[in-house]
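Hi team,

Filling in the usual template for the complex we talked about on Friday. All components are listed, including any nucleic acid strands or ligand strings, so the model treats them as one assembly.

SUBMITTER: L.P.
PURPOSE: interface mapping
COMPONENTS: two
RESIDUES: 570
SEQUENCES:
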Amino acid sequence: MAQESTTPASKRDELHVYEAGRHGLPKIGKYCRELVERWPFAAEFSRSSIRSASTDTIFGQLWLILNPTLLAVVYFILVIILAPPKEPGQGGQTLVTICCGLFLFTMFQGSASSGAQSVTGGGSLISRMAFPRLLMPLAAVRTNIYRFLPTFPVFLVLKLVLTKGPWGWEMILSVYFFVLMVIFSAGFAAFMGALQVYFRDASSFLPYFLRIWMYLSPVLWAPDAFMPSGSRGNLYPLMLANPMFSICGGWGDTLLKAQVPPLSFWLIGLGWSVLVFVIGSLFFMARERDFSVRL
Amino acid sequence: MISLSDSEQPTPQTPPKKPGGPPAVSVQNLTVTYRTTFEKVPTLRSAVVRLGSGKRTVKEVHALQEVSFDVPVGTSLGVIGANGAGKSTLMRAVAGILAPSSGRIEVRGRISSLLALGVGFNYKLTGRENVLLGGLAMGMTRAQVIERAEAIAEFADIGEFMDMPLNTYSSGMGARLAFSIGVHMDPDILMIDEALSAGDAEFKVKAAKKMEELMESARAMFLVSHSLASIRDMCDDCLWIHKGKLMLHADPQTCIDAYTKFLKVGENAFTMEDM
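RESULT (copied from the run log):
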């Protein structure tokens, strides 16, 4: 909503103006300010959805860890059968590699699918309340960050037990790629959330799409072979077209190898994240005035 | 009850009470047109299937056309009209839920809306959690909401159900809770859509009393109701909307008379001169 507030010296004199927006877009600055002001609502919405899924209980937390770990084991078996380890001890490394990428990608997957449902699922809130709708997909992303967090120590423990390292300060750099993933997820979730209003079956296609995307990204495999110096380096430019190649690649480089990722991962990952976030949220904002009559 | 304006001379467009100062709500040439689909569930599949046939399933709804009115501070405004007249669209536009297609709405103060009753945000959550969510969505702080939670529960008279999931509530309890949330959010502008049908006779009396009390602190109140009697009792200004057009803006009695006459004689025989 295009909303103006004069300096709220007194709350009562706060003036709200609702007008038709230009190109359907509300005024960005005001919209962002509203977003920040109403963030407690998104946080509470996310907290309550975590509560209602009882993930704040011990067994709920355990399930959050167990679920992706079991998934990692499934992929591990698949990888072991397709490419049996050549030397003993390599199996452990494979499992840790899979956990590393898979846990992060699960966060993205969860954000995308719950973001897609966030608008259509928030029916009564959206038809009865006035607030920046972008809070809905953002709350979904927040929920999935909190679902990801308990899995991270599991990865660290597995790495400690199953591999010989390496460990180093470079691992802290993974925070950068985590942030990129969050930004990317937020943009993607907003896009899917708006799309879902118009095509209610979009979320049925989404799991297949996300599964294919995962196989094409360095989640279950290391990106080395596709780097310019690798055996299939000719595919490198093509790989960079996949945002996940840079983001998951950088994530794996820092956490698994404790090495500083190549500059291309830093820059191209950032570019993709910002691009997807801007496109996704602008698309959402341009469409959000339509939501209350489309639900 | 709020003083009836029967005795006052009907002066459309300039309702009595507290002149001077900017109006609490000012609606200027408001037009709301939206495109909606008449598909039950819009899907990609049906969109693809439709591609070949060239059929369109989107239709334009002219919900409101060139509606203008001011609501001075201290007014309680009744809105009447047949089903589908655009009453709820008007309320949602003023509450900022629906964007105008053209025109301008100015609102001074915070709106608490009780639109199409029911709190139900998440039926798995308790009443208290829903109250918190609703309050935060309205833009209150967490502390403000928690402070009011007890008063809300007490007014709604739901007792220990406050800490039970919403899906254990009877429909009356849900409606009472919704009403209670709306009136306890210190609204500057209170908006009630059919809320008086909430709860039993006893609650209705309590609700009416509470609204009267609120009018002393609130800047304005909107009441949308099919109950003409409650409009007459509670409002001192009235809008009659028909098919998206503002037919009459006058005191409640004049509006109600015109509306009932209109309902009796029917649309075809009706002309504006009849009033």
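MY TAKE: The longest strand of chain B covers residues 58-71. Residues 252-269 of chain B form the longest helix (18 residues).

Thanks, L.
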